[in-house]
């Protein structure tokens, strides 16, 4: 952060104005702070009021409605309704959108596996799916400006031990699906930043090594890839210690880094001690992004515990987000805010 920006934050503080999350991210030189959102929550007015508060969020990611099962439930039948609803909301509020996702083994339309397609046909299907979706959201088709700034082109292609996940795409095409899907996305929207996205990728380890090796190889072969998305589904008190180092080695490959799905879950019930630990954990993660120039932004995986995916997936766990179920800010909010500020000198 420049001295002038820092002085501005101090000035705001001195006047009792709490600088908000996107404001602070921008002052730290980042492009955005954002939140995921799922369509059913758009019926909740107080929820939408905060979601569209641009001082906190200048970016949205649809958490479900740009996935294959929704976008192309049957071969050749495309349904952009849910994705359009979120992009239009973002457009109205001057927020950018991250597209999620062209290719993922989960929430995949059943016909893709059931068809037992051969290599050539699956390549065509992958191209058709990604090209048509990315093209739909590009500026000159359907939307007057391109609001999708980046795409999670491939999601979760690796196992935690760094081996390739044996999906229908891998089993049928080997590694050539990466080439096809990234080239299709680039052809459809040359301006959007194209990412590979995964979880358990925050610190150094076999999985982040494997992603780094793949990105190096794709770039060497001229396959268009611009970024590594680190999801950031973390556990209270267990933030990896090598995040900054890992982000920097990703950046040194010549790509952007973004934290794309941040949340920090805890075992319930919530206690003041756990909330304080969560505040520190959020601060640690945000400070790592702040410290690496090419970490360009952070998205939390929804902003309120009211709509978090965590309780539905991990029994007895929850409270992972910076706003509670009543849409009240938790200490984690201040953790994010202070993570964007330069460290205090001792
Ligand atoms: O669409 C059906 C609906 O018809 C039905 O009535 C309802 C009843 O449970 O289920 C609905 O489907 C749910 C879907 O979300 C849409 O709400 C699924 O059960 C539920 O499993 C699904 O969960 C999503 C999960 O991905 C599935 O893998 C979460 O909302 C979504 O937040 C989560 O997001 C993923 C990212 O895409 C990738 N990274 C991990 C992240 C967390 O799992």
Automatic annotation (TrEMBL):
It comes from Coprinopsis marcescibilis (Agaric fungus). Residues 18-339 form the GH10 domain. The keyword Electron transport does not apply. Belongs to the glycosyl hydrolase 10 (cellulase F) family. Residues 1-19 form the signal peptide. InterPro entries: GH, GH10, GH10_AS, GH10_dom. Its EC number is 3.2.1.8. It catalyses: Endohydrolysis of (1->4)-beta-D-xylosidic linkages in xylans. GO terms for biological process: xylan catabolic process. SUPFAM superfamilies: (Trans)glycosidases. The active site is at residue 261. Keywords: Carbohydrate metabolism, Glycosidase, Hydrolase, Polysaccharide degradation, Signal, Xylan degradation. Pfam families: Glyco_hydro_10. GO terms for molecular function: endo-1,4-beta-xylanase activity. This is Beta-xylanase. The keyword Hydrolase applies.
């Amino acid at each position: 952060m420049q001295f002038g920006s820092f002085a501005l934050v101090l000035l705001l503080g001195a006047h009792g104005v709490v600088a908000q999350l996107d404001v602070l991210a921008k002052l730290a030189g980042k492009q955005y702070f954002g939140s995921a959102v799922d369509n059913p929550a758009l019926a909740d007015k107080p929820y939408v009021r905060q979601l569209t508060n641009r001082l906190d969020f200048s970016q949205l990611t649809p958490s479900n409605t740009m996935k294959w099962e929704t976008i192309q439930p049957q071969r050749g039948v495309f349904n952009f309704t849910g994705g359009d609803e979120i992009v239009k909301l973002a457009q109205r509020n001057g927020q950018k959108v991250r597209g999620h996702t062209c290719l993922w083994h989960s929430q995949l339309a059943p016909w893709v596996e059931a068809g037992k397609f051969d290599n050539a046909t699956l390549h065509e299907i992958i191209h058709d799916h990604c090209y048509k979706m990315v093209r739909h959201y590009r500026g000159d088709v359907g939307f007057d400006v391109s609001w999708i700034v980046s795409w999670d082109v491939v999601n979760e292609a690796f196992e935690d031990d760094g081996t390739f996940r044996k999906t229908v795409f891998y089993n049928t095409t080997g590694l050539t699906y990466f080439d096809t899907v990234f080239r299709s996305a680039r052809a459809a929207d040359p301006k959007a930043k194209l990412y590979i996205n995964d979880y358990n990728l925050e610190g150094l380890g076999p999985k982040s090594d494997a992603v780094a090796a793949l990105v190096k190889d794709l770039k060497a072969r001229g396959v268009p890839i611009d970024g590594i998305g680190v999801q950031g589904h973390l556990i209270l008190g267990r933030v990896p210690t090598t995040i900054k180092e890992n982000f920097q080695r990703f950046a040194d490959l010549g790509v952007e880094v973004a934290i794309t799905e941040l949340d920090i879950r805890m075992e319930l019930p919530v206690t003041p001690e756990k909330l304080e630990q969560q505040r520190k954990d959020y601060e640690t993660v945000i400070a790592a992004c702040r410290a690496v120039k090419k970490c360009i932004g952070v998205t939390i995986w929804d902003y309120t515990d009211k709509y978090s995916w965590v309780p539905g997936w991990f029994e007895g766990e929850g409270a992972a987000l910076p706003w509670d179920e009543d849409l009240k800010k938790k200490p984690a909010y201040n953790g994010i805010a202070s993570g964007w500020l330069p460290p205090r000198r001792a």
